[in-house]
C-alpha cells in the first residue's frame, strides 16, 4: 500500500487541486490524511478557503465518513532548525544562526540539503507512530514541485552525495530514500489533454523510472465534455454550410445564412479539439500506466468543486492504494 502519495504535474495542470482532492478522497471512513505543501505558495489554504498554513500540522477538513485531512506547509528554514536540534542539540544556537542569516544561506546555497529537509519532513510523517504503535496518518499526500523538477527533488540521495558522504546529513538522505524508493511511495503525474503537458509527463515518467522511483497513475485533469457525438464531429470537419442552412430554414429560423458561419466555426473548433484530445490520449496510452480522467469544473474551482473531485477519485478505489 502506498502511504506516501506524491502529486506532480506541469504548471497549470491543477496538480495542487488534484493533491487536495486526493487527500480528501483518501481520508474516508475515519482515515487520517496529511496534505503537505513544499513550495511555499499557500495553494492548499486557498483551496480549502482557510488562513495561511503555519509550520505545524493543522486539521483543515472533514471527509466523507468522518475522516480528517490535516495540512502542513513545510518551510525549509524551520525544517533546518528542527534538524539542527534533532541531530546536534543546537536549539538556541540554531536560532542565533537564523538571526545572522546563516540558515537562509544554507538552504539557498545547497539546494540538495533543502530538498532533503523538505522530503525528510514528509517521510517522517509517513513513519510516525502514536503511543499504541499505530501510524499517526494513514496517508501522506505531497503537493510536489512540477514535473520538470520532480525527479531531482525526490532523488535527494544523489543531490547530497557530493556534499556529505558520511554523518547525519548523509544518514538522513539515506533514510529518506528508503521511503521514497519503497512500495510505500507512489508518484502520480497530473496532465491535460494538450501536447506540451502530455510531452512533459512522458519525459517525467522516463526520468522517474531511470531514478528508480515508483510511478503510480497518470491523472488527466480538467477534461471537457464532448458536445457532439462522433457522427456530428466527423460532419463538422467537412464543408456542410449548405446542408446546415437548409436544416435551419426547415425549422423556421429567419435569415439562416447569418447563423451558418458562426455555427460551423464553433463546430469545427470543437471537432478539432476532439481530434487533438484523441491524439494525446493515444500518446498517454503508449506510456503503459493506469490513466484516469477528472472532469472540468465549469463554474470554477471552489470548496464544493474540490469535494466533487474527491468523490470522483474515491470511486477509483484501489487505484491509489
From TrEMBL:
Annotated SUPFAM superfamilies: P-loop containing nucleoside triphosphate hydrolases
Q: Which Pfam families match?
A: ArsA_ATPase (PF02374)
Question: Where's the ArsA/GET3 Anion-transporting ATPase-like domain?
Answer: 5-180
| Family matches, as Gene3D superfamilies | P-loop containing nucleotide triphosphate hydrolases
**Top-level division of the source organism's lineage:** Bacteria
Please state what the protein is called. Answer: ArsA-related P-loop ATPase
Amino acid at each position: 500500500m502506498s502511504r506516501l502519495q506524491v502529486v506532480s504535474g506541469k504548471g497549470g495542470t491543477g496538480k495542487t487541486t488534484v493533491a487536495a482532492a486526493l487527500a480528501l478522497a483518501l481520508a474516508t471512513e475515519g482515515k487520517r490524511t496529511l496534505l503537505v505543501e513544499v513550495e511555499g505558495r499557500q495553494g492548499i489554504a486557498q483551496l480549502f478557503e482557510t488562513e495561511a498554513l503555519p509550520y505545524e500540522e493543522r486539521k483543515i477538513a472533514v471527509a466523507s465518513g468522518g475522516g480528517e485531512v490535516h495540512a502542513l506547509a513545510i518551510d525549509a528554514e524551520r525544517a533546518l532548525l528542527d534538524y539542527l536540534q534533532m541531530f546536534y542539540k543546537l536549539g538556541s544556537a540554531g536560532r542565533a544562526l537564523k538571526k545572522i542569516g546563516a540558515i537562509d544561506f544554507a538552504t539557498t546555497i545547497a539546494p540538495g540539503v533543502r530538498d532533503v529537509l523538505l522530503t525528510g519532513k514528509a517521510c517522517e510523517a509517513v513513519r510516525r507512530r502514536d503511543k499504541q504503535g499505530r501510524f499517526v496518518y494513514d496517508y501522506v499526500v505531497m503537493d510536489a514541485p512540477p514535473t520538470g523538477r520532480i525527479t531531482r527533488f525526490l532523488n535527494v540521495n544523489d543531490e547530497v552525495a557530493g556534499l556529505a558522504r558520511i554523518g547525519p546529513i548523509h544518514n538522513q538522505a539515506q533514510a529518506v530514500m528508503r521511503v521514497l524508493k519503497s512500495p510505500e511511495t507512489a508518484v502520480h503525474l497530473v496532465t491535460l489533454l494538450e501536447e506540451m503537458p502530455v510531452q512533459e509527463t512522458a519525459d517525467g515518467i522516463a526520468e522517474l523510472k531511470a531514478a528508480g522511483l515508483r510511478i503510480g497513475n497518470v491523472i488527466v485533469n480538467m477534461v471537457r465534455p464532448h458536445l457532439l457525438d462522433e457522427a456530428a464531429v466527423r460532419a463538422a470537419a467537412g464543408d456542410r454550410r449548405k446542408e446546415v442552412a437548409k436544416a435551419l430554414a426547415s425549422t423556421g429560423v429567419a435569415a439562416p445564412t447569418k447563423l451558418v458561419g458562426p455555427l460551423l466555426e464553433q463546430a469545427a473548433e470543437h471537432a478539432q479539439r476532439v481530434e487533438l484530445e484523441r491524439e494525446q490520449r493515444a500518446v498517454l496510452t503508449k506510456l503503459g500506466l493506469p490513466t484516469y480522467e477528472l472532469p472540468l469544473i465549469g463554474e470554477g474551482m471552489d470548496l464544493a468543486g474540490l469535494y466533487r473531485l474527491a468523490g470522483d477519485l474515491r470511486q477509483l478505489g484501489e487505484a491509489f492504494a
